[in-house]
Amino acid sequence: MGSLKWLWLTVFVLAADLLSKNFAQEWLDYGVPVTLFSSLDMTLLYNRGAAFSFLSDASGWQRWLFVVIAIVISGVLAVWLKRTDKQQWCLCMGLALILGGALGNLHDRILLGYVVDFISVYYQSYFFPAFNLADSAITLGAAIMIIDMLFLEKQNEDA
Description:
With 159 residues, the chain is of the alpha+beta class. It has helices at 7-27, 61-83, 89-111, 133-158; strands at 34-37, 40-47, 115-123, 126-127. The longest helix is centred in the C-terminal third of the chain and has 26 residues, at 133-158.
């Protein structure tokens, strides 16, 4: 089984992402911000593009391109996780987080045709693009993998 035991984290991220998106669609009106704190709103938005709404104004073909890319990347991540030594817990955690986030957004693209975003961070009139828990897991997973690569990879090679 090896590093596949980290799939529990992938399933957790996927479940939390889908539940939070369901909550956002049930309780929020599209495009109407609900302030939680200064600089943090919950605003239901639909992203038909990729990160930062890249290609969101295309005619619809981008949906299936992003579905194919997400399936390929998810497969690569799963194989990478399986082949990673279980002692490399930091790398395994990063891979599992990214895989969970990728599957959460893939679910939306296939079933809805867009990704549900609802977290809006801003400062005064400067807004960061809206995102969701899947995006947060992908970002956190990538950061953990970078930390692993910069600080722990040599330690893992010596072991």
